[in-house]
From TrEMBL, chains A, B:
Domain AB hydrolase-1 per the UniProt entry, residue ranges: 48-353
EC category: transferase
GO cellular component: cytoplasm
Species lineage: Bacteria, Bacillati, Actinomycetota, Actinomycetes, Micrococcales
Keywords: Acyltransferase, Amino-acid biosynthesis, Cytoplasm, Methionine biosynthesis, Transferase
Protein name per the record: Homoserine O-acetyltransferase
Subcellular location: Cytoplasm
Species per Swiss-Prot/TrEMBL record: Enteractinococcus helveticum
Gene that this sequence comes from: metXA
One GO term of the biological process aspect: homoserine metabolic process
Active site: 151, 319, 349
Protein EC: 2.3.1.31
Quaternary organization: Homodimer.
Length: 369, 369
């Protein structure tokens, strides 16, 4: 058995109590738990830790491991001998506070064993970093070699570098900019309103009864369309009908026949509704909309100027949720010679999940992996 | 007083009974009325008629007139001495069947004085053209000099030229392609589902009770974001807070403070909910998704080959609802020398409303106005 001080966990989810948490916009929880998975071993100096941050509906399962063999969402990136080599690095992934994959969130029980529901605090990206810093303290990790993530995970990584410059040596911001844009806020609003419109939502206090899966499904549809590019949807689905269904054979407006793209989004909606809590979806969506590295810091350029971590910035050339322009702006704020590493993929934003291997060598070089 | 045969109406809305209508996907109505506005005078030969087709939530009020002096949605285009000169042309605009601006739609009463609601037929663009052809028959218009429209109005114009090649001499398709794309269908599905989720929708039979304005408002938000470009939203609104509101001062997720872009979309949602019937929104959205000029005609190229009307095709360079690529494809199907006239505007799809004057001279030349 390894010394507990240098050996944290051999994968599978661990949950720790980080104590109370004061949230940025006034909320307070007396006790917060964070769930995390790890890969590899923390060295004696605790200098080989890499924090990988998940996206909006992501979880801690970045990659497979002995105790959790199913493939993770960056399976090709993280593992023995891979880009982030777990023979060398101690990798940790934390479920964000407010989420529903093990960390304290709206579906968690308060001290009286009642789910928080509508009483759960408003969460910002900065709140999540504060919580994760407490976890890092507990693990004895003074400084991460790298904090990296894609989409909302990129925002979480960037805030780590901005809030704790002394604790982050390298920061990877993949398919994310320095702030949520007007368009992202606009689409997020429609999503949140759709969930709230669901009669089962009951202002957020639906636990114990039916859940607002229809509203959550609509939110997912809106989001997922923007995770993909227009050409990708058109090439894959076009106007094809789904199987034997015919969307043009109903005498009244409420048709049952679907187009293929509708069936595809029905699947995406159902899949998310089966695995994600609607309140967590709202909480993390709001957190993502709060993302603005320059807020209260004199703007983005001033905020970035105080970051000491080495930046590794990646965009997807077909991304229309986080347009590459945002990554270029972020890179420019890091300095005139900061490159944007471009993933060439027709599929859109989700290229950060499917095609990050394209810039794996750059990642190794830039971040010193 | 002018001879009724040559003088149809001096603006303001006229409603006529066009009799029964068999709908393409099996629906049937024993009596359909169409509402229309006109400008100018039909000449003795009835050869100077121009049909202008409105978009999804548009109406017949294309331009002001003596009896209806408020500005219309193509005010700068239509009137005495303007691009479509009503001293020369007899202009008519018809509210599409299924709509809620005077023509028979889901909110209309059946023979027993009950609103159709959920029983209203599924409407296609072709159904609307069929209905309008009956109106043209009544008015004695054998052939339109021009049928022109933007967005869904462009689809309606294109179908006119495809269904009645002998009755359309010139066709203007503005900011619309030959078919609804996978992406348009996907966003439409989310919109329709949002309306259906509204507890007030009651499967479409909500008349006499509260109306599903929340669901319709969500639909409008989704649609309107796509009517504008991402840069336009970002330049206008960015992350600005609305007035004294602060989206980041709520201790819980249900915040009351809004971002400016949210306030803007709240306004758009409320405005539409106050002026449009939700069932009509679904009916016309479904009609627009049915748009496919090549359906049942051996594909788009074969369908276009049978059109004899002179095409006038316009796109907006920043349109991300009807990408210019679709207009180029349409033009190519009309023949190798068919140009796409490009509106240069940063605002996106809505440029077809705000900036069509940029191609007014091309319109006059191409269509012989």
């Amino acid at each position: 058995m390894t010394d507990p001080a240098t050996y944290v966990a051999q994968s599978a989810i661990t949950t720790v109590n980080i104590g109370e948490l004061h949230f940025e916009t006034g909320g307070y929880l007396p006790k917060v738990e964070l769930a995390y998975e790890t890969w590899g071993r923390l060295n004696a100096e605790k200098s080989n830790a890499i924090l990988i941050q998940h996206a909006l509906t992501g979880d801690t399962h970045v990659a497979s491991s002995q105790l959790s063999p199913e493939a993770g969402w960056w399976e090709y990136l993280v593992g023995p001998g891979k880009t982030i080599d777990t023979d060398k690095w101690f990798v940790i992934a934390v479920n964000m506070v407010g989420g529903c994959y093990g960390s304290t969130g709206p579906s968690s029980l308060d001290g009286d064993k009642n789910p928080y529901g509508s009483r759960f605090p408003f969460v910002t990206i900065r709140d999540s970093v504060n919580a994760e810093a407490k976890l890092a303290d507990q693990l004895g990790i003074e400084r991460f070699h790298t904090v990296i993530g894609g989409s909302m995970g990129g925002g979480r990584a960037l805030e780590w570098a901005a809030m704790y410059p002394d604790r982050v040596a390298g920061v990877g911001v993949i398919a994310c900019g320095g702030q949520a844009t007007a368009e992202q806020i606009a689409f997020a609003q429609a999503q949140v309103e759709a969930i709230r419109l669901d009669p089962h939502f009951k202002a957020g206090d639906y636990y114990g009864g039916p859940t607002p899966i229809q509203g959550l499904g609509i939110a997912r549809r809106i989001a997922h369309i923007n995770y993909r590019s227009e050409p990708e949807l058109n090439v894959r689905f076009g106007r094809q009908f789904q199987g034997d269904e015919n969307p043009l054979n109903s005498p009244v407006a409420t048709r049952t026949g679907r187009y293929q793209v509708e069936s595809y989004l029905d699947y995406k909606a159902k899949d998310l509704a089966g695995r994600f809590d609607a309140n967590s979806y709202i909480a993390l969506t709001e957190a993502l909309m709060s993302h603005d590295v320059g807020r209260g810091r004199g703007g983005q350029a001033a905020a970035i100027a105080k970051i000491t971590a080495t930046p590794f910035i990646v965009a997807v050339n077909s991304d229309r949720l986080y347009f590459p322009e945002q990554s270029y702006q972020l890179a420019a704020d890091f300095g005139p010679h900061t490159p944007v590493h471009m993933i060439d993929s027709p599929i859109g934003h989700d290229g950060f999940l499917t095609d990050l291997h394209q810039v794996a060598d750059d990642m190794i070089t830039t971040l010193g992996l």
